[in-house]
Structures are given as structure tokens and as C-alpha cells.
């Protein structure tokens, strides 16, 4: 991929590097290959012969959503008061069983547009119809880690067929593919309670051989995995038993983890996708995010699906994560705005095992978000202490202030609207598909 080199100039740059540096009077130089050539103070910048775009406000990294089922935008609002098992088996899976590949494409495209407009440049997906998911992401210009869902249910393909299909696709396309390395492929076993040990072991072996990510639901609710916990002590211990912790592993939710589980994840380098809003809506509990981070576990934020959250807004998740951490621990210092922002950016990249996204640093992909400060949240101005500036972004402004987004150096959102696709046309496709997929409502027990 080649493009015209571009320099972005702004009053403030939030790099989200190791110390979350705040750079004043900053520039970000984007090379022809879509990577960052320089990010820092303009006074220290090298000479520049490319295009220059001056911006007001703040530049920051694209947000990294570590757990989503984005095509569920077709099913938004259904079964919202049901417990997890009833919601899956009675509200979601019957409707999803009716979804055609084109429905998945439309749902993914609309959700991708929604995320990009909120500054989310990368999403980690667990769904089916991977070829159509690739098409959707290619259309919007977003970045995605696509881990095809693997289940052992009677309605769909066998887990063996799913594993073979994923391996064949990776071998054909490569682990990372598309312009600007926008698509990464991986394995998405649903959970330890939906798949036999044999399947989990085989998935781990296939993924490890290819260096692929394994993305799995872990300990989301108390009642989901009682047989597995009875046999192995906990789901993390089960995953370790079958060898999944020996490779790249991303555990979604991780609400009900004990200290031994946390230590295991820290030692293994397992990432955790913390989904505070989804877990709160389900009354599943609050993940021990403070303890995980203190132990050195790589933690990112996830929205979960738009039928279980129901928003695809990662800055809102950052705010919720900080609020719930403080409430859960009874400590107003449990998680700062800086901590929350880092979870949504650098933390998400680390949880995925990626060192090419999540920060605005030289050599990383130019996934960059512009935040306007023409908003009451920034009424005190930009000339405030760094921690106050970030606090105003996380606590007050949120994603409503996102105006422009670049992925691999290409502007994919301009003045709040997608630059590549017609949002209204995609919305019409989703509305038609959603009406066709409607199933009778299920009353909560």
C-alpha cells in the first residue's frame, strides 16, 4: 500500500506510550506505507516535503476493542433482560442460525462504521462467515482481528470442520493480510463449556503452529461452567491443562477469577478483554481488573456485542471500567483516567500480542484519531495540566468529540462521517435483514 505522505499538526498529542506522554505543539508524520515516521514536538521534527494538515484539538491513537461480536448489530435490543444462557440459546442462536453470509457482511459493516465514528480503529471479532467479515472491514477501511467462532452445536458445522476451515484460510491468505495489514486471522472457540477438551486441545495445537491468536470466553458468569470448574478447579486451569496457555491466548471477560488464575495468566502472558458494560448489564459481576494489572496481566477493553452491551463505544468502556473499579474496591484511586485511556489503547494492543498498533509511536501503523475540543468538556482549554486534560477526555468528553480517523494513514472518517461507504445505505440493508431475522421474543424467567 502506498499513499501520499502526510504530516498531521495539532496542539496536543496523546501518544499512549509507556508513560502516556502528552506532547504539546505536536506533529505526526505518516509515511507512504501507512506507518508513523515521526511523532513528537514540531520543534524537533525532521524536514518534511509531503502534505500537511493542520488540526485544532487533540490527536491520539486509534482505540483497540479486544472483544466484540459486531454483526450482532442486526439483533440489537433482543433478549436484553435475560440471563446469559437463556439469552444465547433462546434469543441469539436461533436468530443467528437464520443469518445468511450477506447479513453478516451488512451487520459487520454497520458496526464497523459505528466504531470508526467513535475512534475505534481495531476490533477483535468472534463470529462466522469470515470471508464476508473481511469484505465488510475492507469496505469501511477499519482494522480487525477476525477469530472465527467455533461451536460444537448440532445446528452448525462440526468443530473439526471449523478448525480446518480457519487453518486453510490462514494458510491461503496469511496470518495478517490486506492493505496496511488491516486483517489478522485467528481462532475463536466459544468457551470451555461449549466445546469438548479434545476440541480445545486441537485448536491450541493448530493455532500455536501458525502463531495465531486464540480468543475464548472465560469465566463470564458464575453458573456457566460448573462441570468444568468441578473437574479442573477453574476454566483457566482447564485451558492450561489442554495447552492453550502455551500460545497467544485472549480470555474475554474473566469476571470470576481467583488469585491462582490471575497468577497463571500473568505467567503465561495471556491477555484479558475486560468488558465492563456488558458484564454490568448482565449482572455478571466486576472483573478483578486492578488485581490483574497489578499482577502484570495484559488487559484491554472490549465492548462485547451490540446485542449485549449495546454500544460499540470504547471510550465509554474506559469510563465504565474506571467507575466500576473504584466502586468494586471502594477506592477512588483504584483506576485513574490515564489508566483507563491506556487500557483502551496500548493495553488492548498488548492483550492481543500486537506491537504495531495502540500507540502513536514511530514504526507503528498510523491509526490516529482527532478529537475536537469545541465542546463544553474542554471549556477549561488545552492549557491545563496533562492529567486534567486526559480526565476531561475520559470523564467528560467521550467519543462524541471524535471528528476524523485515520487507519494505516488513510482517512476513513471525515467530519464525523465514514469516508468510504454510504452509512444510510448500509443502515437500510441492516434494517431489512433484521426484520427478516426477527424471532418471537422470549420472556425472562
Structure description:
With 445 residues, the protein is an alpha/beta fold. The protein is 37% helix and 22% strand. The protein has 14 helices and 18 strands. Strands 1, 2, 3, 4, 5, 15, 16, 17 and 18 form a nine-stranded mixed β-sheet that branches. Strands 6-7-8-10-9 form a five-stranded mixed β-sheet. β9 (176-177) and β10 (183-189) form a beta hairpin. The protein is globular. The protein starts with 5 loop residues before the first strand and ends in a 9-residue tail after the last helix.
Question: Structural class, please?
Answer: alpha/beta
Question: How many whole angstroms does the radius of gyration measure?
Answer: 21 Å
- Percentage of helical residues? 25-40%
Which stretches are low in confidence, meaning pLDDT under 50 for 5 or more residues running?
Answer: 441-445
Task: Quote the distance from N terminus to C terminus.
Answer: 53 Å
Counted by DSSP, the helix tally is 14
Shape: globular
Sheet of most strands: 9 strands, mixed
- Taken as a percent bin, the fraction of beta residues is 15-25%
Please tell me the overall pLDDT. Answer: 94
Number of strands: 18
Amino acid at each position: 500500500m502506498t499513499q501520499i505522505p502526510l504530516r498531521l499538526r495539532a496542539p496536543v498529542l496523546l501518544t499512549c506510550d509507556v508513560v502516556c506522554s502528552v506532547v504539546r505543539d505536536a506533529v505526526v508524520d505518516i509515511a507512504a506505507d501507512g506507518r508513523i515516521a515521526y511523532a513528537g514536538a514540531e520543534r524537533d521534527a525532521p524536514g518534511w516535503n509531503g502534505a500537511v494538515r493542520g488540526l485544532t484539538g487533540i490527536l491520539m491513537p486509534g482505540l483497540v476493542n479486544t472483544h466484540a461480536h459486531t454483526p450482532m448489530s442486526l439483533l440489537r435490543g433482543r433478549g436484553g433482560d435475560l440471563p446469559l444462557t437463556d439469552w444465547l440459546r433462546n434469543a441469539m442462536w436461533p436468530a443467528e442460525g437464520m443469518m445468511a453470509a450477506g447479513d453478516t457482511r451488512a451487520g459487520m459493516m454497520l458496526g464497523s462504521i459505528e466504531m470508526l465514528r467513535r475512534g475505534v480503529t481495531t476490533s477483535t471479532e468472534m463470529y462466522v462467515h469470515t470471508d464476508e467479515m473481511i469484505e465488510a472491514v475492507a469496505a469501511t477501511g477499519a482494522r480487525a482481528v477476525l477469530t472465527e467462532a467455533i461451536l460444537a452445536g448440532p445446528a452448525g458445522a462440526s468443530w473439526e470442520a471449523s478448525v480446518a476451515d480457519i487453518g486453510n484460510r490462514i494458510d491461503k491468505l496469511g496470518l495478517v493480510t490486506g492493505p496496511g495489514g488491516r486483517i489478522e486471522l485467528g481462532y475463536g472457540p466459544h468457551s470451555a463449556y461449549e466445546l469438548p477438551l479434545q476440541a480445545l486441545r486441537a485448536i491450541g495445537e493448530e493455532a500455536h503452529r501458525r502463531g495465531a491468536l486464540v480468543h475464548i470466553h472465560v469465566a463470564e458468569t458464575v453458573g456457566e461452567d460448573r462441570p468444568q470448574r468441578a473437574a479442573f478447579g477453574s476454566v483457566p486451569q482447564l485451558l492450561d491443562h489442554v495447552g492453550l496457555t502455551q500460545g497467544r491466548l485472549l480470555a474475554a471477560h474473566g469476571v470470576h477469577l481467583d488469585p491462582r488464575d490471575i497468577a497463571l495468566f500473568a505467567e503465561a502472558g495471556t491477555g484479558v478483554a475486560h468488558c465492563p458494560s456488558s458484564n454490568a448489564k448482565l449482572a455478571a459481576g466486576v472483573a478483578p481488573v486492578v488485581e490483574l494489572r497489578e499482577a502484570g496481566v495484559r488487559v484491554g477493553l472490549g465492548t462485547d456485542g451490540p446485542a449485549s452491551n449495546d454500544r460499540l463505544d470504547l471510550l465509554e468502556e474506559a469510563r465504565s471500567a474506571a467507575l466500576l473499579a473504584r466502586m468494586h474496591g471502594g477506592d477512588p484511586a483504584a483506576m485513574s483516567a490515564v489508566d483507563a485511556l491506556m487500557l483502551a489503547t496500548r493495553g488492548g494492543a498488548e492483550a492481543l500480542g500486537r506491537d504495531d498498533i495502540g500507540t502513536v509511536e514511530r514504526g507503528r501503523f498510523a491509526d490516529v484519531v482527532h478529537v475536537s475540543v469545541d465542546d463544553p468538556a474542554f471549556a477549561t482549554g488545552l492549557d491545563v495540566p496533562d492529567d486534567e486534560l486526559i480526565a476531561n477526555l475520559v470523564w467528560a468528553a467521550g467519543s462524541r468529540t471524535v471528528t476524523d480517523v485515520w487507519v494505516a494513514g488513510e482517512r476513513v472518517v471525515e467530519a464525523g462521517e465514514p469516508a468510504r461507504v454510504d452509512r444510510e445505505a448500509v443502515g437500510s440493508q441492516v434494517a431489512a435483514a433484521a426484520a427478516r431475522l426477527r424471532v418471537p421474543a422470549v420472556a425472562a424467567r
